[in-house]
């Protein structure tokens, strides 16, 4: 499912728009969540609009699956990517007359993967890039590490990441200050429970404010300052074991995309910083870069980052 082939494609545009609407709507405080009696009325129209968007996305994934089935029939190629793997499983199930995996399940599975995995990852990368571009000192430390470990002209590979502690620290610091899911996903208590002296009654909605955890001055020195260095001195990861920093949640329902997201983020951030010089649009200097936040289900930059990559002589040898 490589949509990067044609960045102007109608499908890609449709997908991006629908995803963005969905995130915006899902992040709005919904009166019906707090007063269940209003659920049927849907006073803000959130459920109505989301139903339309979900339907659009399901149709879009349905079209992609149909298109792929046609290509497979014409070319005979059956083993290219995750979509082929899912279709292969569907075909086996059909042959065995089992209905464990059918087209509807694949459509909904893709909806889950795209809705949970795209904006979260791209927004984290955008925040990390904005913070690095805003601070020339951090930028030059990051690039010095990359130059030393990767060497100019080479591409960053997944296997290099363990030797890039400063890049890793930037990603952690981006998660601390700008957690993409600032309130995780709301939970509901199964039964009455007492935690640290507070009683949480059965069915109460529980919201974990990870954004506030990351800005807590009793835990973090200079909490509002982007300082990747703090993570060079402490042994803390974002895998859900340390409750001071849980951008992926924790426990049984921790984000299942965590390993993939971590791989992608280090690789993308490392590659962007290693392959290009970065400058801001005319009139914007690093110090005045707008870092305001827009709260939704994901925490976006209020003013999306517009940064211009400048190909350096050495990076122009990097193949794309
Ligand atoms: C920076 C990237 C990402 C962040 C910050 C993130 C964060 C989260 C968070 C906070 C949750 C809820 C955990 C909870 O309620 O305790 C979650 C759930 C989920 N994430 Fe991610 N995620 C990211 C990337 C991904 C990717 C790449 C995928 C898949 C390709 C993915 C798939 C999912 C799914 C399917 C769930 C729902 C799990 C469930 O309900 O049990 N996420 N994510």
Gist of the model:
The chain contains 10 helices and 8 strands.
Structure description:
By secondary structure, the protein is mainly alpha-helical. The protein has ten helices and eight strands. It has helices at residues 10-26, 31-34, 46-75, 82-95, 103-134, 136-150, 165-177, 210-214, 229-232, 258-275; strands at residues 187-188, 193-195, 198-200, 205-206, 276-280, 293-294, 300-301, 307-311. It has a two-stranded antiparallel ribbon. α5 (103-134) packs across α6 (136-150), α5 crosses α7 and α5 crosses α10. The longest helix is centred in the middle third of the chain and has 32 residues, at 103-134. The structure holds protoporphyrin IX containing FE. Protoporphyrin IX containing FE is lined by residues 112-113, 116-117, 120-121, 124, 180-181, 184-185, 247-249, 253-257, 260-261. Keywords: Heme, Iron, Metal-binding, Monooxygenase, Oxidoreductase.
**How far apart are the first and last residues' alpha carbons, in Å?**
19 Å
Q: Compute the CA-based radius of gyration.
A: 22 Å
The largest β sheet comes out as: 2 strands, antiparallel
Residue share in β-strands: 5-15%
**What are the secondary-structure elements, in order, as H or E?**
HHHHHHHEEEEHHHEEEE
Q: Please state how the strands of the largest beta sheet are arranged side by side.
A: 1-4
User: Which ligands appear in the coordinates?
Assistant: protoporphyrin IX containing FE
Structural class: mainly alpha
Mean pLDDT: 90
> Tally the helices: what do you get?
10
Global geometry = globular
